[in-house]
Amino acid sequence: MRKRHSYLFLPPLAVFCLFSFVAAEEPWQQWDWGAASSVQTLYHPAWRIEVQENKVRFLAHQFTYTYESRTDHWVVTAEENEWEQRRTWEQEPGKPVRYIQRMLTTRGSLEAETQGSDREQGQLELRWSGSSQPFARLRLWTREQLGQIWFEREQRQHPPPASPETLAEKICMSWAEVADWDEDEQKIWLAIRFYEGEGCAGIGTILEIDKDSNDVRVHQPAPLNLVSIAHILAIESELWLATERFGEGGTGPGIGLVRYNPRTGNLQSVPKMTSQIMDMAHGDGLLWVATEEGVAACDLENETWRKWRFIPRVAVAELVPVANRPGSEPRGQLPAGDYEVRWVGEGFLELLTPDCAEGYVDSSSLERLAKRGFCTSPSLLASSPKWGNPPSLLVFSSPRTDPKEQKPSAWFLRVPAVPKGKENGSWQAVEVCAGWVELQPDRVYISIEEEATGEGSNHT
Fold first, then answer.
1. Considering Cα of 372, then 378, then 384, then 388, what sign does the dihedral take?
2. What's the CA gap between 22 and 429, in Å, rounded?
3. Is the pTM of the predicted complex or chain greater than 0.85?
4. I need a surface site. Which of 20, 40, 222, 391 has the fewest CB within 10 A?
């Protein structure tokens, strides 16, 4: 059974949302409603997969999730895990920074080097450890290529570039960085990441290295031009590729998971796998994928998928008051049970509840939130401490003339609003099945639940 894992990890910080301000007199403005507590309590993605006999381990920073194949059972263990950093920066006085990545392959230790000068950007040198000379010196993209490829995308900017040539003149060429690698009997495959931010860009690239001849072939399929390749897995004649966008604030999903045949050039996306992918592994006929929200497994013989979510929950042992705003008058009593936690505030937890709050939301605000999926991506939690709270959902008991000067009847974060009926002018009636309870975050535990059936094993 072959086991591999990627070695370079950056926390996903790519999803940004503008903060929605509420009136200063709101009670929750007295407290810290930033995302730091929610990140620590709710966001525990697995960043490494270890395939072992009869079990698969998924390593997060504070937990290990173990799937036992014989019993089809999950075990969640509180455990501190740290990833290996296998990259080095080297600099001699008066010379550019050298960025070296080392990969221990069956052929030997492979080094990939790029340098920090403008002249070297987009270039990569490959050598075997112990050799003073590279066996390949590659220019993966040029300024002219970037101008042509990125021109259409940059039309969203203000002002947009007038032509590919004008874009090429001002574009910043990103460094070429090896994000991940894998190998089969004849080939070594490198996934290339580039920085997409502050006017910089690269081209989605896979490198194919022949172990015997050292010949290198560059693959740049057009559908992948605008995304980095974050993870790569060679299974038989195909490559499984996880794409991402590596930008100014961090990383986020690219176009999801794709299958690529390097011989035919055929490329297929996997529609149900569009979340940020943290790692991939292969064993016993299964492709395992760790995402920011959970785990997925594909039976490669029949191409069927199973998916599980990492869900933060709290066990409520007795009736507790539930409110539409933290600290406000309760709307009722929440019965005993296990509830999913969506946000952590000072002394309060926001839960998904069986009963719902009803009211009105400004239609333009609702549209913005819906386009962002109500900011439900866990990546938002990681970015919020730096960039502000995620946008809040302000629900009013009736339409208002100036909502900025009125208290909402309900206030929520990271939960969807379901429209009810037609719009009333600029307002939309909604239902929101969430509420706030006065509980401490140390009562939250992580469960793993299969999406298809809603059933799973919960373990602290």
1. positive
2. 20
3. yes
4. 222
Prior bond of 159 cis (ω within 30°): yes
SS3 readout for 109-173: EEEEEEECCHHHCCEEEEEECCCCCCCEEEECCCHHHHHHHHCCHHHHCCCCCCCHHHHHHHCEE
> Over the stretch 130-177, which tens digit does the pLDDT of each residue have?
998 999 999 999 999 999 999 999 998 888 999 999 999 999 999 999
Tell how many helices (H) and how many strands (E) occur in the chain: 5, 33
Distances (CA, A) of 239 to 191, 234, 242, 261, 299: 10, 5, 10, 6, 16
| Cα 258 to the center of its chain, rounded Å | 16
Kindly report the three-state secondary structure assignment for every residue of 7-73. Answer: CCCCCCCCCCCCCCCCCCCCHHHHCCCCCHHHHHHHCCCCCEEEEECCEEEEECCCEEEEEECCCCE
Q: Which residues contact 260 (CB under 8 A, 6 or more apart)?
A: 206, 219, 221, 238, 239, 240, 241, 266, 267, 268
Q: Which two tokens stand for residue 293?
A: 């929200």
Tell me which amino acid residue 358 is: E
